Q: What sequence folds into this?
């Protein structure tokens, strides 16, 4: 799978850890920054990853900041993006099954590293169920078009 990933300064170390695990699992990872712990503004990174996913250059995106919240807000401003910040494996799974979430937002200060890996693994492994859920995504796309 092609995965675009980025973080701000607060998420830099966790992004590196997740990137290493993804590459070891055979995924093609596009690291879109930041590459340091120097203070930076997360919206630019959220938009870059989200646009790569929306354009089809990456299958999915992963964003990391201190809480995951700011990244999630910014990512969802890009048409076609369904970014989520699950706090557990069940939410990660359902975000894929029912919402076809295509960007995962993680909080480096709010999730234990073991929990992050569980969330990432299930989020990447879970497919979209379609059916009635596809109709709901069409309604969301109509909202974006307005």
A:
């Amino acid at each position: 799978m092609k995965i675009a990933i980025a973080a701000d300064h607060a998420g830099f170390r966790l992004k590196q850890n997740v990137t290493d695990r993804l590459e070891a699992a055979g995924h093609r990872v596009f690291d879109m920054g930041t590459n340091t712990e120097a203070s930076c503004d997360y919206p630019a990174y959220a938009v870059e990853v989200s646009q790569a996913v929306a354009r089809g250059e990456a299958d999915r995106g992963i964003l990391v900041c201190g809480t995951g919240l700011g990244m999630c807000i910014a990512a969802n401003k890009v048409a076609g993006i369904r970014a989520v910040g699950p706090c557990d494996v069940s939410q990660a799974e359902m975000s894929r099954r029912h919402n076809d979430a295509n960007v995962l937002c993680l909080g480096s200060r709010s999730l234990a590293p073991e929990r992050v890996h569980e969330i990432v693994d299930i989020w990447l492994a879970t497919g979209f169920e379609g059916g009635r859920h596809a109709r709901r995504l069409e309604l969301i796309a109509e909202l974006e078009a307005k």
Remarks:
- The chain has a mean pLDDT of 97.
- The chain has one domain: 2-145.
- Residues 2-145 form a domain with the Ribose 5-phosphate Isomerase B; Chain: A, fold (CATH 3.40.1400.10).
- The beta strands are 2-7, 28-31, 60-65, 83-84, 103-107.
